[in-house]
Write a structure and sequence with these properties.
heterodimer, A: alpha/beta, Rossmann fold, Alpha-Beta Plaits, 2 domains, 10 helices, 14 strands, B: about 210 residues
Chain lengths: ~300, ~210
């Protein structure tokens, strides 16, 4: 696997407080990698270090297989806050300004090409102030898609967007990976990101708690049942040899290794007089909590 | 870089209004005087051909130099190879360009060029104002703040200067920033004046390098 980002032993402290503690992970090329972690876990610090806005106390960063230096910035696009542009200028003009700062040979043409890549070609000549929130976020992406950029670092790209806006952004990100762009995305919107995630890096306490392909983690998903009598259901399933435990929400049970056994489980519970109200597999948010809880227990 | 600043003025309602105000300021003073009638006389302490560039520098310069602090492209600029001092220099250069155009416009309206010495002193005064405005904007990062601070300083400084011993006053007058146009007529303290302006240049660079485009 060639890596878009490789980080080894990254450490960063602020006023004696260690935010990143020997962070080590790799991110594959041309994929959407989700960077998950609670607030204050060090996600934004990681982004700032990767973007070269700050220097680490220790550790190494490789971007697209090259050791970090100011030269790697030409392959990098970064969004670290909400999009801000000149409202009276068109989308194309705003991107053109960004590209001219980066030294594009033909900034107007490059801007138009970038707008095409994020699906905004039709709105290129509309003023920024007339853009919807989703379009603004896509324009922000376009402004980062300078010719030659192969890696985007996106901090909360769907923050504050409505359902439509979020869908627009995620679909655009997915299309960008098809064009060979690697995406390293931090988000709190774990459930919406689940459909698009190909690789995961989970941060906890300044260290990596999990990293790997999403499909590997998905295999570890537990079966979740919501029942009318959780205690009775738990006893019934355990007596039948299932690894079951109470879930986070009232009436929910987690059952390990239950793939393909939904009908059998329901039948067992029906025999015991327990009614199944809902059934599903764990979502990414629950997997995330499991990793986090496991780490806290271990600590 | 200058092209980007020009683009930022395009269709920019505030920028265009300030620019128009600068270009038509001499005409506005003239019209106000005519409309005021015989009992009131409205005049400017500076010549009409100098009014336009001075107003352009004061208004458009302050607007451009504080544009990113209010609208912001913050981290976006951080991640491009543009250093804040270069950005500020482009803005100052763009302002100077419009100041020149407004001067030509005013001269065109008046129909004659000012005498060479006056032109030279006026140009120096405009450049001095631009330099002062560049570091002041870098410090305050707020359009209205820059205008208010500039106005207050220009009104208060002459009074404060009078409190100094008479022998010190001419020196203080030529080294303090933004004290209007007349102090360039005093050529006896040129060395101090040049040194003071070199210091302002350094100050502008330092202020923008430190504060930068946030």
């Amino acid at each position: 696997m060639s890596s878009a980002i490789a980080v080894h032993g990254l450490t960063k402290s602020y006023r004696g407080r260690r935010v990143l503690d020997g962070l080590t992970f790799e991110v594959p090329e041309a994929a959407i990698t989700l960077y998950l972690g609670p607030n204050g876990a060090g996600k934004t610090t990681t982004f700032r270090l990767l973007a070269g806005l700050e220097t680490p106390d220790a550790g190494e960063i490789h971007i697209l297989e090259k050791p970090w230096s100011p030269r790697v910035r030409r392959f990098l696009g970064v969004t670290l806050e909400e999009p801000r542009f000149y409202p009276w200028l068109t989308g194309r003009e705003n991107v053109e300004i960004a590209f001219r700062y980066r030294g594009a040979e033909n900034p107007a043409k490059a801007a138009l090409r970038a707008l095409e890549r994020v699906g905004l070609a039709n709105a290129a000549h509309r003023r920024f102030r007339d853009y919807s929130l989703g379009m603004r976020q896509r324009l922000y992406l376009a402004a980062q898609l300078f010719p030659g950029v192969r890696l985007l670092l996106l901090d909360e790209p769907t923050n504050g967007l409505d359902v439509e806006g979020r869908e627009e952004v995620w679909s655009t990100l997915q299309a960008l990976t098809c064009q060979g762009v690697s995406l390293f995305v931090s988000t709190h919107q774990v459930l919406e990101a689940e459909r698009f995630a190909e690789y995961l890096v989970v941060l906890h306490g300044g260290r990596v708690a999990y990293q790997g392909p999403y499909r590997d983690l998905a295999k570890r998903r537990r079966f979740v049942l919501r029942v009318d009598d959780a205690a009775e259901a738990l006893a019934t399933l355990r007596a039948a040899g299932y690894e079951a435990l109470l879930g986070r929400r009232p009436g929910e049970l987690y059952i390990e290794n239950a793939v393909g056994q939904a009908d059998r489980l329901r039948a067992r519970l029906a025999e015991a007089g327990v009614q199944v109200l809902d059934q599903r597999f764990e979502d990414l948010e629950e997997l995330y909590w499991r990793i986090k809880d496991g780490l806290e227990r271990a600590a | 870089m200058v092209w980007n600043e020009l683009l930022k003025i395009k269709r920019n309602p505030t920028g265009l209004a300030l620019l128009a105000l600068g270009f038509f300021f001499p005409a506005a003073v003239f019209l106000a005087d005519r409309l005021a009638g015989d009992r009131v006389e409205i005049t400017s302490t500076i010549q009409p051909w100098l009014q336009a560039p001075v107003v352009v520098v004061a208004l458009l310069g302050a607007h451009l130099l504080t544009l990113e602090a209010t609208l912001g492209t913050g981290k976006w600029i951080f991640t491009t190879p543009v250093t804040p001092p270069r950005l500020a220099a482009a803005k100052a250069l763009t302002t100077a360009l419009f100041a020149l155009l407004s001067f030509l416009f005013a001269v065109g309206l008046a129909g004659e060029l000012p005498p060479g010495r006056e032109l030279g002193l006026g140009s120096l005064a405009v450049l001095s104002s631009l330099l002062t405005l560049t570091w002041l904007s870098g410090l305050l990062r707020h359009f209205a703040g820059v205008l208010v601070a500039g106005m207050v300083w220009m009104q208060a400084a002459p009074w404060l200067l009078k409190l100094l011993p008479q022998t010190v006053q001419p020196w203080a007058w030529c080294v303090l920033p933004g004290l209007g146009l007349t102090h360039f007529e005093d050529t006896a303290h040129n060395a101090a004046r040049i040194l003071a302006h070199l210091f302002y240049l350094l100050l502008a660079w330092a202020v923008w390098r430190r504060g930068g485009a946030r």
